[in-house]
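Quick log. Single chain, no ligands specified.
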Amino acid sequence: MADILSHPPLDDPAAARQTPPVDPIFDGPSFTFRALRPNLRRAERLLRDGTPATARVVGIRIVRQTDDSPDHHEWALEVTRATGETFRAGCRQRLSHDRLERVRLGDEIRVLVDDDGHTLIDDGSELVHAKLTHKVLKDPPADGIQDENFDLAKQRRKSVPAQVVVRGAKRTTVLGMTTQNIDLEVEVSPEGGAPYLTTCKRELVPFYAQHLVASETVLPGLALQGKVRVDWPAAAMATPGNGLAPALQRPAGDLAPQPVSATATSEDWSPAGLAADGDIGERGGITFDQWVAVSAGLVRDRVKPASADDYAVQHGVAPGTWRDAEAAWMAAMIGDPRIGARYAAALERARKHR
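-> predicted structure:
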């Protein structure tokens, strides 16, 4: 688990939480009426009166917007107050670029919370700007990573599973200027086919997977007619990379992939390879299939967090045990990339099943 996200110390920490003077009627560059901005007012109250706490990132959801609007970043957080009380919270918030590229599933981060459990991620020196993108979510995202930019359902019907090995990575340049996109040199081994080399040009690697472009990293993907799509959400759930900086920001010679658990018996990401382990036992008193069925159903059926335990009982989970069992399986997934890969594939199938 990563340490709590750090940020440069401030000469006056209290000053970072002070909101700048604003017009009493209008607010921000779009001159939106303040009276119509309840999200803004709530964020300002959190900045002013929120109590510092820590939280673990247990869910990330990326909601795709139009080309003219940035995607929404939504977070599911396990919050621990200074008193030791823990609870689950959700918020929508866009972090500063440098901070965002270092956030990983399972990381511990700093937050500000109020008495009602509303939560704002502490973005250090960018706190005064966080309010403009913040929204409290009544229903936090499900555990794991859901990214609408990588919905591969259609591709799965036409493609075959493939193992993708990173052989080289560099930032794309345009007119001599470096961009955020990455050119990936990869070796692709499609199921039932011969391996081949190809380049994923201008790949926009999501922030939660920036550590995975290190040389020799093995990724799950889909292959079709010499082309390949990397399943970044599945890869990051299997190997979250807690504590690792983005691979292309590490010193030369320090690009080794994150070591995986000794329990991982293979790097075969194909359905046949993933099934080779057979029954992988129980965690927290529930089976892998129960974990997948409940996790998928909570999202598909829009179950409120307060009703999650009752919903889990319908799938044979003992009353009052769902959260602990879910946490046990998440810990197992973070420790063993093969469990994460199996989970990602099974979860997608289960979400479509009614």
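The chain has three domains: 13-141, 153-259, 275-352.
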